[in-house]
Amino acid sequence: MDRLDETDERILxxxxxxxxxxxxEIGQAVNxxxxxxxxxxxxxxxxxxxxxxxxxxxxxxxxxxxxxxxQVFCHGTIAPDRLxxxxxxxPEVVSAATVTGTSDAILHVLARDMRHLEAALxxxxxxxxxxxxxxxxxxxxxxxxxxxxxx
Length: 151
Prior knowledge:
By secondary structure, the chain is of the alpha+beta class. The protein has five helices and four strands; from the N terminus they run αααβαββαβ. The chain has helices spanning 6-17, 23-30, 34-46, 80-87, 114-126, and strands spanning 66-74, 93-98, 105-111, 130-137. The chain has a four-stranded antiparallel beta sheet with strand order 2-3-1-4, with helices on one face. A hairpin with a 6-residue loop joins strand 2 (93-98) and strand 3. Helix 1 packs across helix 2 (23-30) and helix 2 packs across helix 3. The two termini are 35 Å apart.
């Protein structure tokens, strides 16, 4: 992969602001033609700089307003691939990562309400060789750059 230049970074910034912008609109903002923008975007896709395009749905519109972070402690060692396989099909788990420190992984979980969260936690705990978990319920989000700016 070639190093990104300033124009590539400006294109990425425009896409971050509005992933639905046309190549012409982006080109106008970065002073390039639409075909030149398309070539750069295609190259960044091929190089893995841009991983893809997605729709971000505000979970509150679905009624999923209960949010928690769950620290997971495993019996012994467990491969990250096994943990991922255990949780990837759980819609309540919006992200999961292995971490340093005393816990083995941390999950970001969304649910409709406390009852739904409790059921999700039970499924998480029984999904792999989990010794225990500790949950932290979110009261309010102060900064969340992964959600739409109007959320």
